[in-house]
Amino acid sequence: MDLAEATRDVNEYVAEALGGYVIPRVAEPKVVRDAVYGFQRFHPHEIAIIDSPIVQRLRGVHQTALSYLVYPSANHTRFEHSVGVATKAEQLAVALRSAPSKPDVSDKRVLELRIAGLMHDVGHGLFSHLTESILAQRYPALLDEIKGSDDFPEKTHLGEALSALVVRSPAFRTLLSDVQEVYRTQEGLRDVSADGIAELILGRTDDADEQYLADIISGPFDADKLDYLGRDCHFTGIRAEVDWERITHALDVHERDGRRYLAVLQPAVPHLEQILFSKMMLYSAVYHHHKIRTLEQMVETTLEVARERSAELQEQAFALGRPSDIWRLSEASFFVMGEKEPVISDHIRAILDRRLMQRALVLNITTMKKKQENVESYRQFQKLFADPRAPATARRLERATHDELASSQRDALAPHEIRFDFPRSPSLSDDAEQCNVLVGPGDARTLEAFFPTEDWVASYADNKLTCHVFSGGDLATRRGVADAAECVLSDLYHLELDETARRALK
Amino acid sequence: MSERAIEQLRREMATQYSYLDVLALALAKSGVTAFTGDSKRWSEIVQEVRSKYPGLLAGIWFSERGYSEQLEDFFRVMARAGALSFANPRYERIDMPREAAERIVEGAPDALREQEESILDIASRLADLEYV
Question: What is the DSSP pairing of strand A38-42 with strand A30-34?
């Protein structure tokens, strides 16, 4: 799969999705009530974009994938998040007009920012980042080509690239131009361009003087982050707040290396730190929650089995043979149609009935035997958590563990019923090192200078980041898996575990 | 596990490498034991060698601000593994003890042994990061 092929696939999908769409004639702005922000107001032309099938699809993509099976109220979707990002982007942009350096933020750019907010996640597929990561593993050459292409910044994630490809597709361009025609009385709208929207989604602008606008959509403290942190906390019930209003009133721009970036005035630093705290809290309580990791492993296993046995599938989208399959297959159809696919129906039922794989082993620094050599071995082992080869290594370790099982258990448990899970360490330095804090006119430091995220993340990696070996089967089987996995880890990585590594075997 | 199974698994794993192995090996072979902590210089030099050896250093990416999550991961992993030390409080100097360098060279994936010339070239560029 190369970039040209992926682009064709995206273009075809968007053309199909928008094929029968008739642009609604909306006479008045509409007001939408949101659980987090209260009321949000949308222009008529935005309703025409929001109502289009490519944005409506996001109603079926849970923001935090399957975390609602652990946090029952986490049912929020990419749709309300996108709507919220549009609102937040405008608030940040309008606040900038009153900033000390008074950057010129035109009405046209505000309209473009709002549409970029609405569109920034249209590349997300079912289960959000989970399928993005599966596609990235399956098509490494595509990701390399995207990052090496002038059409995308190097640091582009696959989801952002797909969103940009949707916006650059001929069918979306036609939709935008039709919307511009229908709503031609909306001042500034006719100057909005699909390319401009795509660039904002990718976090860059052609004009180096306007980089701060792209930072509003994709930057160290962008509208996306301000929205999802507050929203994820609200809907999971996690008590962590982001005081985005304080940050809004402390914005400015800062010129560095010929580009003008979004910056925050020093008095708002504690509120930026609050963002980092909220993010870390969400990692610890939600994104790295062992049951949520289990569920993600179960979905990944299901899609791997579907791919291996794709010839037996009635619905080929389960094999994720092309990028657009993550859009063609909704979360609802994953469950409803998946139940009718004999090769994966048991996997689907297990998720639906919440019969989860269980922890056979818990691996972190506290579950190693307390010897210095073990600490060193574990730290060597931790390399896997950051290594791009981690999924391939995990599959090898699973096969080796399966081979190591006693023969009776080996026959009762398929290799894919054992999963090694290596979560990645949270990435906070990304925010802290790129965030400009203005300490005086033209004098900026990074947030890292005020808050040592490096040490914090290292401490998280040492004390909280946990690798798990999950397994199906009954308690006796899981004990067998724990024995076998421990043997593999000891032989390959010299890891010696203490009893607490088996604390979940009950 | 049987000796044979362990050997086979090790062989399988040694057929591959990532930028983490390449950077670690090149640093170990650079002959330098104290590097600058200047992240801007690190970004510039690693970007340069990445452009020259895209295959060896695949997967390292930089933002327009010069930040690389992968380079950050590299430092974190090396520090956790005791191969790099950031003992000084302001991160001005990064140390790689000789024993750590020897351990890295000994444990390098087999597949990298065939890339000796390129590794030495990368090592010579990384040597410019010496702390003075």
Answer: antiparallel
Which residue type, as a one-letter code, is found at position B86?
Answer: F
**Cβ within 8 Å, pair A383-B81:** yes
Rounded distance between C-alpha atoms, residue A500 and residue A498, angstroms: 6
Compute the nearest-CA separation of B49 from chain A (Å). 15
**Structure tokens, A182:** 């229908």
- As a whole number of angstroms, the distance between CA A365 and CA A274 comes to 27
Instruction: Give CA A334 to chain center in angstroms.
Output: 19
Partner A contacted by B80 (CB < 8 A): yes
Q: What is the DSSP string of A136-198?
A: HHH-HHHHHHHHHSTTS-TT--HHHHHHHHHHHSHHHHHHHHHHHHHTTTSTTGGG--HHHHH
Q: By the CB < 8 Å criterion, does A155 face chain B?
A: yes
* Cα→Cα distances A149→A153, A161, A354, B57, B66, Å: 8, 11, 42, 17, 17
CA A68 and chain centroid, separation: 16
Kindly report, residue by residue over A282-301, the tens digit of the pLDDT.
Answer: 999 999 999 999 999 999 99
Q: Any idea what DSSP says for residue A207?
A: S
Q: Show residues of chain A in contact with B76, CB under 8 Å.
A: 386, 425, 454, 457-458, 461
SS3 of A445, please? strand
Phi, psi of A395 (to 5 degrees): -65, -35
User: Is the distance from CB of A401 to CB of A481 less than 8 angstroms?
Assistant: yes
Q: Give me the mean pLDDT over the A228-239 stretch.
A: 94
A440 touches chain B (CB under 8 A): no
Q: What digits encode the pLDDT tens for the residues A159-214?
A: 999 999 999 999 999 999 999 999 999 999 999 999 999 999 999 999 999 999 99
Averaged pLDDT for residues A9-38:
96
Query: CA Rg, chain B, in Å?
Result: 15
Read off the pLDDT of residues B22-55 as tens digits, 9 standing for 90 and up: 999 999 999 999 999 888 899 999 999 999 998 8
Query: Alpha-carbon distance A430 to A448, whole Å?
Result: 10
